[in-house]
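Slack export, channel: ligand-projects

TW: morning all. Re-posting the request from yesterday since it got buried. We need the structure predicted with the small molecule present, not the apo form. The ligand is magnesium ion; the SMILES is in the block with the sequence. No rush, but it would help planning for next week.
GE: picking it up
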Amino acid sequence: MAGNTGSIVGVNGNMITVAFEGAVSQNEVGYARLGELRLMSEVVRIRGRHADLQVFEDTAGLGIGDQVEFTGELLSVELGPGLLAQIFDGLQNPLPQLAEQCGFFLRRGTYLKALPRDVRWAFTPTAKVGDKLTASESLGHVPEGIFEHRIMVPFGWRGTATVVEIAPPGSYTVEQCIAKLKDEQGQVRDVAMLQRWPVKVPIEAYAERLRPTEPLTTKVRIVDTFFPVARGGTYCIPGPFGAGKTVLQQITSRYAEVDVVVIAACGERAGEVVETLREFPELTDPRTGKSLMTRTVIICNTSSMPVAAREASVYTAVTLASYYRQMALNVLLLADSTSRWAQALRETSGRLEEIPGEEAFPAYLESVIAGFYERGGVVRLKDGKTGSVTIGGSVSPAGGNFDEPVTQATLKVVGAFHGLSRARSDARRFPAIDPLESWSKYPSLVPTDMVESARRVLRDGNDVGQMMKVVGEEGTSLEDFILYLKAEYLDSVYLQQDAFHDVDCATPAERQRYVFGFIDRLLQKPIGVKDKAAARRLFHQLTQATKDWNRAGMGSTEFRELEEKLDKLVAEVS
Ligand SMILES: Nc1ncnc2c1ncn2[C@@H]1O[C@H](COP(=O)(O)OP(=O)(O)OP(=O)(O)O)[C@@H](O)[C@H]1O
Ligand SMILES: [Mg+2]
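GE: finished. pasting the full token output, ligand included:
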């Protein structure tokens, strides 16, 4: 199929129209020839003998009559050991190596191999000669990071594969043959650790999809207790400019209880991305004490890179995440921000002169967004073990107005909504997740009735607060005033969490249950104080003591002393 060529009949921004002979398929990769350079591009539409391709590079210099070589291959990524700890662009070029080769100004038409070819991996075979396997079943494994990286029958393998030969234990590069497999037609093929997979096709080499029900502990209290995320679930974080989307995702990538984190930094400002790249490798994994990068893959493209690469990056990220799910691992994919991805779709659609939908986004925006989140999920693998891909996407709606196409399309498909509020971020109440607007369909790690009653306190306390703005404190009854103070207390000691404090930054599940249980009892108690001033004093003391308690190591002497102090305060007034 490879080897088709065509010639350019039109150039419009990063879109080229190519007249071709023979067969060309949707999402096939083509290279536009520009002198010595070959610019990578992808077929986005075919009409008769004309194909429209989006070029992943600046198209300056390309003109009518220039040649395009079609590859016969869909836009694909490399899968195999060596992905972890890497930083790729949207086309899976390793960025540090790219920078090394080309300096600061990336040279067009430079594409590097994603997986290192010279590294040798210690392979342990598990399959035996004569075994009959199907796609994704294990041939063996190599150590990568803190776990065993499964080497599997390629996902695209059709029917049964009979093991004809399997490599003995030893060191192999990703391209060396580690097994000879015979297909149902009797043809024997060499299999290496490296396999390629088209990014826009879901990897579905598993036994079945399961419902996401097991909580994924992020250690962010407001999330886990109030608006939980499930392993294999999906959630979105819409928030106005600067409300804390990126910081929240960074905290989650550090502390969430998962095996692998894939970060898709999509269209961020170049400065921000550079910061992430500089900072991340220096962070240590709270679980292993090793660099956090050893279980992380970053896909990043800045707003200065062409939009087509931005569109691809989201698919590259979800493909890598799905790959690790096939190894019975729990993977978290964080996309920041999906709005910039949607903008890329809008630009492409505009260039194709498609009939626009709302706010000039393509009419198929909803199905594209749904298709992306559907690639998350919990699956039971063919060996009975489970793996998951959890997807969290931030959305940055213009003006912070959630009533816009990207936020709305996302809300239709995700299982949890963490809406950031401008009022809360302005008041520096971080994380700025709005406790009244947000929701989750997943089970919390504390009993539902406790969460419900706490939310009631927040709602009622907020109502009193709004009323107080009008009638003043004098116009408010003592009872209502106490309700208001209870809501403020819950907010400041539980919903808010100090991302920069060693202990407070991450609250494990067990601790959340314990502390929330205490707070619940306190909220249920009638408070006997003689006036508002006394009530204010009491809640001020409670707040200080509880904040100190949040900062003490659980189970430490200090923790117990602070707890006694809190108990005494409560006993005095109830
Ligand atoms: N949990 C937090 N704790 C303390 N400060 C925070 C927290 N979250 C955000 N901030 C503050 O808010 C600033 C902006 O946060 P962030 O960059 O995450 O916002 P954003 O929503 O990603 O913005 P943008 O729309 O520009 O991408 C941070 O630099 C930090 O000062
Ligand atoms: Mg951001």
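GE: first-pass observations. The first helix runs from residue 95 to 102. The chain has a mean pLDDT of 93.
TW: perfect, thank you
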